[in-house]
Design brief:
The chain is mostly helical. Helix content is 78%, strand content 0%.
């Protein structure tokens, strides 16, 4: 049975259904009867539910969620957490969780998620309501009309799927292992690693890192003693120099934490101390262009936090989305132009035409989300710019 439309994915899903039925149904059903009608109907209901879920997922417009809503939520959560950390450092008697949710309640005004996040019974009730709506939208109506089956399905989803899944993804070991796995394909740069050391507030982690680099220094010195090649010795000396530099930074951060220097305001990006610090006379500041900020992941992260704090993140997200489309469109147009030059006269060019349509379709999506008349006020464009841009859009057939 076709579920998602992809044979590879459908085969994997069917294998998972077989495993679920084997581990959770056959172990007790086979002791009752040999009739396979219930198993067949259960499999059919699961497959139909997955088909409906797959079709509804395809109907969702993921671009605004992934590029705007999700980024805003993550930046807001991180900013609230930093503010809570700063308040706890000012008064160690405060509870971090309580302070965080107090700040959230202040920001959201009429919404606070403290009970759902801290009480298991409220979490179960929340998931019960969520699964009830989900089942109503996904499973066939005749199956949902059967009250015992729908209640059983809710309990199974809540207690054996959602809650265990939430505990798994929130487990620190799982998060660390996931980060390590993701970083294997894209190695951590020197800037990111040094920034992690300079901003670390865990002495235990710094001591562990210090012990590792001390071991590296010992091994490099031994290698230098037994090396006979001048090129190899030069390479080893450069490595030793780099390792010693990292050790000095670790030692400096450890001494900084032990002495308790009054620089805890660094963790509070919304504090006024930032302004006082950077306005010190004689302090040398580096001037970064917008292009340099956008190309540096660390700088872009802090810039996005700042734009969110002044309610201007939509400007930055608009620029990033439009610029990403521009780069992609330029590459596609160059490929189409090269392909047209190589094609013989009279040869079918439908593939190039389809690529051009795909490029225009992406532009339409960006226009509808960010730059159309209904959302012009969200980025504060002038009336003159709105009129000129709309005329250009209508000329190119994007509206």
């Amino acid at each position: 049975m076709r579920i998602t439309g992809s044979k590879l994915i459908d085969d994997t899903i069917n294998d998972m259904i077989d495993c679920v039925l084997r581990d959770y149904v056959h172990i007790w059903y086979d002791h009752i009867t040999d009739d396979d009608e219930f198993i067949h109907e259960l499999r059919k209901a699961i497959q139909n539910s997955l088909v409906t879920l797959s079709s509804r997922i395809k109907e969702v417009d993921w671009i605004p969620y992934l590029t705007t809503n999700l980024v805003d939520d993550a930046a807001t959560h991180l900013r609230l957490f930093r503010q809570a950390l700063a308040k706890v450092k000012e008064n160690p008697n405060n509870d971090l969780i309580s302070v965080f949710f107090d700040l959230e309640a202040t920001m959201e005004k009429n919404l606070c998620r403290d009970m759902v996040c801290t009480d298991d019974s409220h979490l179960a009730d929340y998931f019960q309501g969520l699964t009830e709506v989900l089942l109503y939208l996904v499973i066939p109506q005749d199956a949902y009309a059967c009250a015992p089956a729908s209640v059983l399905a809710q309990d199974l989803l809540v207690n054996h799927v959602l809650i265990p899944l939430l505990r798994l993804v929130s487990d620190p070991d799982f998060v660390n292992q996931t980060i390590i796995t993701l970083c294997k394909d894209s190695p951590v740069t020197v800037d990111i690693y040094m920034n992690a050391i300079n901003t670390s507030d865990s002495i235990d982690e710094l001591f562990a890192t210090q012990a590792f680099f001390n071991q590296q220094v010992t091994e490099l010195k031994k290698a230098l003693e037994f090396s006979n090649s001048s090129d190899e010795m030069s390479t080893l000396r450069e490595q030793l120099k780099c390792v010693n530099y990292v050790r000095k930074r670790i030692d400096h951060q450890i001494s900084h934490l032990k002495e308790g220097k009054p620089q805890d305001w660094i963790d509070d990006p919304d504090g006024e101390e930032w302004q006082h610090y950077f306005m010190q006379p004689g302090l040398k500041l580096n001037t970064l262009s917008l292009e340099q900020v956008l190309k540096n992941s660390v700088a872009l992260s802090y810039f996005l936090d700042y734009m969110s704090s002044v309610d201007g993140s939509h400007y930055l997200l608009m620029y990033l989305n439009v610029d990403a489309w521009r780069v992609s469109a330029e590459q596609q147009l160059e490929e189409i132009e090269l392909s047209n030059r190589s094609l013989q006269q009279g040869k079918d060019r439908s593939k190039n035409h389809q690529e051009m349509l795909d490029c225009m379709r992406v532009c339409q999506i960006i226009y509808r989300i960010i730059l159309c008349d209904q959302t012009f006020r969200s980025v504060g464009n002038s009336v003159q710019f709105s009129s000129v841009f709309s005329s250009s859009v209508q000329y190119f057939g994007l509206n």
